[in-house]
Amino acid sequence: MRPSATFDTHTIAEIQRAAETGIYAIRGFGAKRAVPHFDDLLFLGASMSRYPLEGYREACGTDVVLGTRYAQRPLRLDIPVTIAGMSFGALSANAKEALGRGASMVGTSTTTGDGGMTPEEREASDRLVYQYLPSRYGMNPDDLRRADAIEIVVGQGAKPGGGGMLLGQKISARVAEMRDLPAGIDQRSACRHPDWTGPDDLEIKIAELREITGWQVPIYVKVGASRPYYDTALAVKAGADVVVLDGMQGGTAATQEVFIEHVGIPTLAAIPPAVDALQELGVHRNGVQLVVSGGIRTGADVAKAIALGADAVSIGVAVLIALGDNSPALADEYAALGTAPGRYDAWHEGRDPAGISTQDPELEARLDPELGARRVANLLRVLTMEAQTIARACGKSHVHNLEPEDLVALTVEAAAMARVPLAGTSWVPGNPSTSPGGPQ
Amino acid sequence: MSALDTPPVTTLDLDEQGLRAVNRTLQEAPDGARFAVTSPGGRHAIAAGLRSAIEVDVHGHAGYYCAGMNQAATVRVHGNVGVGVAENMMSGRVEVHGTAGQSAGATAHGGLLVVEGDAAARCGISLKGADIVVKGSVGHATGFMAQVGRIVIFGDAGPALGDSIYETRIYVRGAASDLGADCVAKEMRDEHRAELAALLAAAGAPDADPGDFRRYGSARTLYHWQAP
Ligand SMILES: Cc1cc2nc3c(=O)[nH]c(=O)nc-3n(C[C@H](O)[C@H](O)[C@H](O)COP(=O)(O)O)c2cc1C
Hints:
Chain A is an alpha/beta fold and 440 residues long. Helix content of chain A is 34%, strand content 14%. Chain A has two domains: 27-402, TIM Barrel, CATH 3.20.20.70; 410-440, no CATH class.
């Protein structure tokens, strides 16, 4: 009766599924296996040598300005948590509207996705970031000029090196029209930009986008975490105002499982090299902002990402859960789909009982954008208050004052990746000037 | 419009005014205005983001993204252009009286791009509805993932023509010896000869014979992949 650690239940089921169908598994959500993450870090609260701030009474700032390098109108956010790019197509129009309204309620931004900008989304969002993707679906200069920031997508953490997919069930007439594709086809988006290759071209592309938008709005470059030191340095060299770094745990609407679980590096491991690049170029917290995403769930994650050097974070899966994804209330419907609350990831199939990852009008109608917006705003508020709680405990009057020095790691791996000491020691693996036995 | 109504041509010199000032003038010009842009010097993004029915003649060679995202304007380049001429054009007309670099007319949604000479690789990549007429030959992967719109090639097509093409129609007069994945030769019916004749006339080649061209398009075998 001994189960195999090598051939575990999931692995066996996957081999059986492959043998039956002859095609790889596609799914939504992010990486599901455990990789070193923010849970492996802890904050050192203030004590004798540091003064904490009073919760509720003493101010702890959370505002962030993105795009201070070149943009005449940088994006000013009240909180350091933004909503990541998720396409209309992957998500229903109601879901997109709810995200825009929820973000606006708490003074932050939301982002379009691989499919263009819908009027509802523009209307609902005080601050809307417009993605400029390899597919260029729905891309047009009017929407570009309507955007509050532009995000050039080079890659995504769930699939660095891969393009989007949207299966036929979700290519409704409206989605097809926005993307100039035949309705009902299984769509695979390009993985390379059609008119630039490499960082030297990207510099010229960024200059063109600035010419077309009159140098008004910030231009971000989003990369999936694989070689973050070089990618960050090259994005800065190409003229980015903001670098968006998405770790391997980052969510997706539809990607091959093998891609989600085996390509890219964890968010935790990606931040320090990106910060190194920014510091070496003299732009860290000084001209170019870093936005980190991929598996951010709590205010502790927000605070840890910022302490390691991010200016803000971006979230995807967590806001979908806030909207009602994977809710226990839908247990019966999930059972009918062969799954259960907490496990549902077939976002590519378009049969989402919560009305989020679907284009079916009946399912979509289940999602009330106003109620959804309130839930999203609540989550964003809680993440912010939690991050403030931690910052105050560390004696910081602004979340940006959190720093690596406030952190220790629970595991040797996390200590090495985050470059902070193993808890209870002064040892930072990989840093020869520290040792396991030194003072703390 | 009689000769008297024709507005005078305003000359904008890029060496004297710089790119930002010249582009701003062009982007803010009212319908009907006419401009000559001089000293382009291979600069990038010349006449990008235009949005009114103006006429612009660029005298010399332009770099990347000349007339990028054009809306309504007519831009004539009297020279060669670099990568991405008329990329993502929405409407209007762009003429290159020379040769074009890679990705000419990439992702363009509308309007007409005419290249008098050759165009390099990936001409009309991910085309989304515009028309492209190249009077010379084109490089590899022309019409890659092209979705809607038409591409007309007077000369030869490079390798992997129309790879992963969707509903774009490609017409070739010269050789097209290497077709990309899912791209096939298709029957020329009357409706195709008629649309081609109209395109040839619009591109200033009314004497070219549609009967000399062959049509290529999607076999549509990649439209569905069998997923679990
Ligand atoms: C449903 C869904 C759709 C997405 N669509 C896009 C997209 O169109 N473009 C993009 O750059 N990233 C897309 N992403 C990735 C997100 O922008 C973001 O990088 C990721 O969700 C962050 O990780 P998290 O979900 O763990 O917070 C999508 C993610 C999800 C969950």
